[in-house]
Specification:
Helix content: 25-40%
Largest sheet: 8 strands, antiparallel
Order of helices and strands: EHEEEHHEEEEEEEEEEEEEHH
Number of strands: 17
Structural class: alpha+beta
Strand content: 25-35%
Radius of gyration: 18 Å
Number of helices: 5
């Protein structure tokens, strides 16, 4: 399942991040790719560990942790450090699947879900659509600055060539407490059913039964 979330970053956070990106140090994005993905990855990546990186990564990480929708939909157990990618004119990332395990022995996580948080106004660049192939259907996404998309990391996906302007984005990979994406979708649907029932009936017997069932399914399926 693919989830889109508007305004994960607010206007103040975007205003703080964007100038830092302009002065940030970048390296070749292929340096962080696997041996096959390196053949099709043509972008830039903010150098980790620099003061600019630490400042903007903290903003994005706090926004990710603050978002109740992201936390409820993905049920994260752990997440990678934030990666910042830049695509200038002529850059792209060809079809690839993300590494199943990220990090090292002391902090390795299973990459169940990839999150892209768009940082550039979509009207400021052409191309650069995130394209995800699921069940034989190819879907393209180019969201407003501050919005996020979360999608299964085991899918083939790519970023189309940027033909004008600059596309900046933040990337986070998540290991979910619920490994099975079909189970995560059921839990997300039940959460939405809870909220809809509460809006119509308040804390009714129906609401309590849905809440109980969802909570017990989390207990049944969660890996902790």
């Amino acid at each position: 399942m693919i989830y889109c979330f508007p305004a994960i970053l607010n206007s103040g956070e975007l205003a703080a991040i964007q100038p830092k990106l302009q002065g940030a140090s970048f390296i070749d994005g292929a340096d962080s790719a696997g041996w096959s993905a390196r053949e099709v990855k043509r972008n830039l990546q903010v150098t980790a560990g620099t003061p600019e990186y630490e400042q903007i990564a903290r903003i994005v990480r706090e926004a990710f942790m603050r978002s109740g929708e992201l936390q409820t939909a993905l049920l994260p157990a752990s997440a990678t450090s934030v990666l910042f990618n830049r695509y200038q004119q002529g850059m792209e990332y060809g079809p690839h699947v993300d590494s199943p395990i990220m990090g090292n022995m002391s902090n390795a996580i299973r990459s169940d879900i990839a999150i892209t948080i768009f940082l550039s106004d979509p009207r400021s660049y052409d191309g650069g659509e995130l394209t995800v192939l699921m069940n034989g259907i190819s879907s393209q996404f180019k969201l407003e600055a501050g919005a996020a998309i979360a999608y299964p990391a085991n899918t083939l996906h790519h970023v189309t060539p940027v033909t004008r302007g600059v596309r900046d984005a933040a990337i986070i990979w998540v290991q979910s407490q619920i490994r099975d994406p079909a189970q995560r979708e059921i839990l997300w649907d039940m959460e939405n059913a809870k909220r809809l029932t509460f809006s119509r009936e308040g804390k009714s017997p129906s609401f309590d039964l849905i809440s109980k069932s969802r909570a017990n399914l989390v207990r049944m399926w969660a890996e902790t």
